[in-house]
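Usage

Read records sequentially. Each one opens with the input sequence:
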Amino acid sequence: MDREMEHIILAYLAGECTEEERAQLEAWVLEGEHRGEFRGVTGAYHLARTALLWDRINATRAERLLRERLARGRRRRFMARYSAAAVFLLAGAALWWYAGGDGDDRTTGDAMLLVDKAIPTLTLPDGQVIEIDSLLEERQLPGDLSVTWDEAAAIEYERGTLAGEEEVRHHVLTVPKGCEFKIVLADGSRVWLNAGSVLTYPARFTAASREVSLSGEAYFEVAPAAGAPFRVTTRGMELTVLGTSFDIRAYPDEPELFTALISGKTLQRFDGCEEEVVLRPGEGVAYDVQGRSTRVVKADIEEVLSWKEGRIIARHRSLEEIFRLLNKWYDFEVTYADPTLKDIRFYLNMKRYDNVQEVLDNLCSTGGISFSRMGNTIHVSREG
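and closes with the structure output:
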């Protein structure tokens, strides 16, 4: 990076960039080989605003924090070349943000990592709660049900249907924040549950009916069964199929319920809507829970299923939507300096990193916003 471009980046971060310099910077960043360099410097700058927001200036500590940050992962290759410039940014950002205090050496605490000790649980009809990892030793459940454990985070029920007047017994699989889980039901249908989801289902289905209920998000691959339609109920919606694959997102804290069809055909009924919705592969339907209205759209299947691949893909999504998504995996709260910041739109396509700071860095480098953090609270404000 030449000195002229370094000067333009410093001016951009300080909010003193001219229109001509901004255009020059945008053209430079659009060259693929320079995007990493830009993120390396801006990442150090935003680290300063986060890590030193409540601290007095301490040059030694600032340099140590910077080196620890740049030594990790993809930033390592930038350290030798840009540490001096980034230390300057670190001190400048801290001076700009520092607003006095009583002399306490207060810090923001540890990095916000993925939710720890997230273990799915299985609740049996008698109320007994079993942590899934305990099934490694206990594979026989009450009622002579055989469950096998797959080390790739999955349990599988023994195939079979209820006989005669045998009672339907429901199990409840709860997948907490910070993990995902797969289950193979007694009819052979496969269900992947995203973080913060609950699936209620019979340990064995009847020969004529297969019904489950969902809270949260899940991807279904339904096994065909003649004469036994598969139904999923969730808040305000019932979906019926015979054999198909689809994703349902129905979290209780979200204003919309969304279904995307990957293969097959679905029939859906919604509370307050007279018409049934029939989806075809590649289509999705969004249901406004409060307004009780639906709209059918072309579904972005890659974005819909990105959670199954350990990625975060958000195309033209609001900041509020992105934080709602991240909160399924990271433990934090959000405050906004201006409520309109919630509506800023972003494009993200990245791995789900161990530390949420990786995601924040990507948002900062593309959206004209900044984040400061104290403990597990992220404060969002406009940059500059």
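Summary fields computed downstream for this record:
- The chain has three domains: 3-97, 121-304, 310-382.
- The CA atoms of residues 71 and 188 lie 47 Å apart.
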